[in-house]
Write a structure and sequence with these properties.
16% helix; single chain; 2 helices; 141 residues; globular; four-stranded mixed beta sheet
Length: 141
């Protein structure tokens, strides 16, 4: 099987607020939209983020009122500290400050206006040097 594209679809209250957050702070761009729907792409993310307004009739009845809770939207970046500093300078609240895990993961989190947790990860060798695993979102960081 060949997969041509990947996307994550999130049900949110305010599609425009999440779309503006991802566009303004992470460089996503609108590729498609309609009432209660937007698909955002990014040149280096390798996937689209689709935002659907809760209650939309196109959603299966059992899923219409669900919210994207318990989900972490994670992106690998080349420099997590620089990305965190850039987002702080732009006024984005850091909801989990930068930390280094013993298994070689440097990460921090922010939360978008709809409560979507966005995590930025930089992979390190045990000595702290970059391994160079993907650049992902934050190329401007």
């Amino acid at each position: 099987m060949k997969i041509n594209r990947s996307a994550v679809s999130l049900n949110v209250e305010d599609v425009a607020a999440s779309a503006a957050f991802l566009s303004t702070h992470l460089g996503f761009r609108e590729e498609m939209s309609a009432d209660g729907f937007v698909s955002l792409g990014h040149p280096s993310a390798g996937m689209n983020v689709v935002l659907l307004r809760r209650g939309l009739e196109v959603l299966p009845e059992g899923l219409r009122e669900q919210h994207a809770a318990g989900l972490i939207l994670a992106f690998t970046v080349g420099d997590a500290a620089a990305t965190e500093a850039r987002l702080k300078a732009a006024g984005v609240a850091i909801t989990m400050p930068l930390l280094d895990e013993p298994w070689g993961e440097r990460l921090f989190q922010v939360t978008d206006p709809n409560g979507i947790v966005v995590q930025f990860v930089q992979w390190l060798t045990p000595e702290g040097a970059e391994q160079g695993i993907g650049e992902g979102v934050g190329a401007q960081a």
